[in-house]
Write a structure and sequence with these properties.
single chain; mainly alpha; globular; about 80% helix; 5 helices
Length: about 160
């Protein structure tokens, strides 16, 4: 189980690195594709279709893209926090110490990711993104703590 989680964590870090290595134009192109796809789903669920195609109001993709990009940061690092803490807990380390190690890992990896982006054409480093990444990681850690708490309570009953 631990080996699978380590491979998964490695693959997530590779994905993060590859996304960060894209120049601004390529990165925005991917974000806009994802944003259009999500907006189409949203408007289909709302019943806002113009025949066979979904009508997305002008300017909405640009507005939603910023939110989608930040949610992507949050989600990537939520997975990093979740998997990293899970690995530590499988090694039976003390919970508080595990949490501290993973928090340091999150801050360092998010900072290195932003540092890497600083050297990519059209991209920049952002403290705000480091904070978003760290918040996502903390959310993943919280999920692991809550799940392990529920498991412990159910096994005591």
């Amino acid at each position: 189980m631990t080996a699978v989680l380590i491979v998964l964590l490695f693959l997530i870090y590779v994905m993060i690195f590859n996304f960060s290595a894209e120049n601004a134009t390529a990165s925005s192109g991917v974000s806009q594709k994802v944003t259009r796809w999500l907006l189409r789903i949203y408007y289909k669920l709302q019943g806002n279709t113009g025949g066979l195609t979904v009508v997305i109001p002008a300017g909405e993709v640009d507005e939603a893209e910023a939110v989608i990009r930040k949610l992507a940061h949050f989600t990537e690092y939520m997975l990093v926090g979740l998997i990293s803490l899970w690995i530590w807990l499988l090694w039976k380390a003390k919970r508080l110490r595990c949490g501290a190690f993973v928090l340091v890992q999150l801050v360092i990896s998010a900072s290195l990711d932003e540092f890497h982006q600083y050297f990519v054409p059209g991209r920049y480093a952002s403290i705000r993104d480091v904070l978003i990444d760290t918040a996502g990681g903390l959310t993943g850690m919280l999920l692991v703590f809550l799940i392990s708490l529920c498991i412990r309570k159910s096994t005591k009953s």
